[in-house]
Amino acid sequence: MDVKLVPSWKERLSEEFEKPYFSSLIDFVKQEYRTQTVYPPGKEIFKAFDCCDFSDVKVVIIGQDPYHGPGQANGLCFSVRDGIKIPPSLVNIFKEIRDDLKKPIPKSGDLEHWAKQGVLLLNATLTVRASSPGSHQNKGWETFTDAAIKKISDEKEHVVFLLWGAYAQKKGEVIDRSKHLVLMSAHPSPFSADRGFFGCKHFSKANEYLKSKGLKEIDW
What are the tens digits of pLDDT across the range 171-194? Predict the structure, then answer.
């Protein structure tokens, strides 16, 4: 499987492609796509990178798994295709944006317009078997996405990392806090959103930080 990454990411992550874990991962993923229903569609596995060039990254949001229901996953964490019912965690994200920035709740759950502005919407695991959450965890994706996060931390400055929930916070331990802004809260899931996600004001805080560094704010 030739990993089709945009050049800015390919040059930074190509050393991962040579490592034994990555060839095992690709063998596993190819077999799954051949024999199972797997999300997102193959051409969208690396969409988070395709939509957000390395040079453009201003904000990183870390998710865990792609959505595992039909037609939901589109390669961007928390995002769903246009026309698909907005999942509960994303509903809560939109509610927090409404309360924080006084913006109306969108009708579409497709977050590609965020990605195009420099928001890397990165799941820790980039594929999943249908109706089987976590089915592609611990196969190598996490090592690959850790490498991507570390590259951003090491080679860029003034990036905002939004770490929602314990899983994302653990994954964010490699981030250099002396040159980036790390904002942490509970996960936006209905099970935890009222324990610190609601009222976190991460969207206005991210924009205030970007503005203070002379960077263009995100139109959430």
Answer: 999 999 999 999 999 999 999 999
User: Long-range contacts made by residues 168-173, C-beta under 8 angstroms, separation at least 24?
Assistant: 168/62, 168/63, 168/64, 168/124, 171/62, 171/124, 171/142, 171/145, 171/146, 172/62
55 CB-near residues (< 8 Å, 6+ apart): 8
pLDDT for 3 equals 75
Closest of 181, 159, 184, 190 to residue 171, by C-alpha: 184
In angstroms, the CA 59 to CA 206 distance is: 8
- 16 SS3 class: helix
> Which pLDDT value is given to residue 33?
97
The per-residue pLDDT for 1 is: 52
3-state class percentages of the chain: helix first, strand second, coil last, to nearest 5:
40, 10, 45
- At 120, is the secondary structure helix, strand, or coil? strand
Per the structure block, which two tokens stand in for 149? Answer: 């996060």
pLDDT in tens, 101-141: 999 999 999 999 999 999 999 999 999 999 999 999 999 99
pTM of the predicted model as reported, rounded to 2 decimal places: 0.97
* DSSP bridge pairs for 128: 39
Asked whether the bond before 70 is cis by omega within 30 degrees of 0, the reply is: no
- Tell how far CA 190 is from the center of its chain: 19
Q: Which residues are catalytic?
A: 65
| Contact (CB, 8 A) for 126 and 142 | no
